[in-house]
Amino acid sequence: MHYQKKINLDDIRYVKLVPVGSADPNRPLSEAGKQAQVDLLNQCLSGYPKGIIIGKDVTAGRYEIGSHLLSMEKVTYHIGFQRKPSWET
Fold it and tell me: pTM, whole model, 2 decimals?
């Protein structure tokens, strides 16, 4: 079996911000757009090199549109890597 060494925060040399969702009612995401965001997050956490979540920001918005109240949320994950992944441009 192959065991990967746990990443220590001191070993983090590259951080990628991965947003999931949208808090802007003028730019709603399609289902395909949401899925692409989740796919990128999964690639960061399970691909090679494997990253870890070192933080996250949550942005929430409440908007009144006519007589309707709309709540939206975006979570930006901070993914730490020991080195920049080769698939990252």
Answer: 0.84
